[in-house]
Design a protein that fits this description.
The complex is a heterodimer of chains A (200) and B (85). Helices cover 55% and strands 0% of the residues of chain A. Chain A contains 4 helices and no strands. Chain A has helices spanning 3-51, 54-92, 115-128, 151-157. In chain A, α2 packs across α3 (115-128). Chain A starts with a helix and ends in a 43-residue tail after the last helix. Chain B has 2 helices and no strands. Chain B has helices spanning 2-50, 56-81. Classes of the chains: A mainly alpha (200), B mainly alpha (85).
Chain lengths: 200, 85
């Protein structure tokens, strides 16, 4: 065999060896890729299975919350009126009046009243419901009251404490009426203008 | 005989480097894919673990229903006892 033929055979053998090495290495890598993709497919399948019931559940939650929002907005506007309702909203969430009420687009165009006025009227309404607050002596239908000295205390007394710590020490409701066991002296200054300090 | 040598030289100088270059490129590309696939598998596994809390949505759904029912009852009572504006 001539030398050129030997060189040719050696070269072909080298090419075949290189092909074997690289192709086997590539096959190994492709096997690794296949295994990894199998893991991915399994995990994606789990994700699909876990998220399948999410849509109807979330849709049901949203439907319930939408109904609650509509009912509460309607009740708020019905009972407080649009102006005071927006004032109350602003009192709870400053700046929220710009967004307005969802079911009442016209609420965005209202200039909300001051918080104190709405709050006092709400306090009077609660007081009228029998919470025995001193402020209940006023007429809820009357003008807005401003008790700058005890307004905060009176308001706080209307609401129960978060941990209900008071009932053990809370006095029982007094018996009132002309035949009550304890007669209280009637104050003369109730209903009259407050005393003012004379200016020097 | 001269043509044989020319063919051998062409084989050694052109064909062998080209084959090696191409095969090396395929192997490098396949090697670079493996870490990416492994990362994707890890991420999907983590995402699947994150969704283990999804069944709690059923509890949330039930609680929302109860809360909305309570709010509706409370609102109905308020509608009765409080005068309209």
């Amino acid at each position: 065999m001539p030398a050129a033929g030997v060189v040719l055979i050696v070269t072909v053998v080298l090419i075949v060896l290189a092909l074997v090495y690289y192709l086997v290495s590539t096959i190994v890598q492709l096997r690794a890729i296949t295994n990894g993709l199998d893991d991915v497919i399994a995990n994606v399948g789990e994700i699909l299975a876990k998220t399948e019931p999410v849509e109807p559940v979330v849709a049901d939650i949203n439907a319930n919350l939408d109904a609650a929002v509509s009912a509460l907005e309607g009740l708020l506007v019905k009972k407080a009126g649009m102006d005071d309702a927006m004032g109350l909203v602003v009192g709870l969430y400053p700046g929220a009046a710009a967004a307005g009420l969802r079911d009442f687009p016209q609420s965005r165009e209202i200039s909300p009243p001051r918080i104190g006025e709405v709050y006092t009227k709400g306090t009077l309404t609660l007081a009228r419901l029998g919470r025995e607050a001193p402020i209940a002596v006023a007429n809820p239908a009357g003008p807005v009251l401003r008790n700058v000295e005890y307004g905060s205390l009176n308001a706080r007394l209307l609401y129960p404490e978060a941990r209900q710590g008071r009932p053990e020490r809370l006095e029982r409701s007094p018996v009132i009426g002309t035949d009550s066991p304890e007669q209280y002296e009637q104050r003369d200054d109730i209903g009259k203008p407050r005393k003012r300090m004379r200016s020097a | 005989m001269t043509l044989w040598w020319i063919g051998d030289i062409v084989l050694l100088v052109v064909v062998v480097p080209a084959v090696l270059y191409l095969l090396n490129g395929v192997l490098s590309a396949s090697k670079s894919i493996v870490p990416s696939v492994r990362k994707i598998a890890d991420v999907t596994a983590a995402g699947s673990r994150d969704l283990d809390a999804v069944p709690l949505l059923l509890t949330t759904q039930d609680q929302v229903r109860q809360t909305v029912a309570g709010v509706a009852n409370y609102g109905g009572s308020l509608d009765v006892i409080i005068d309209d504006a």
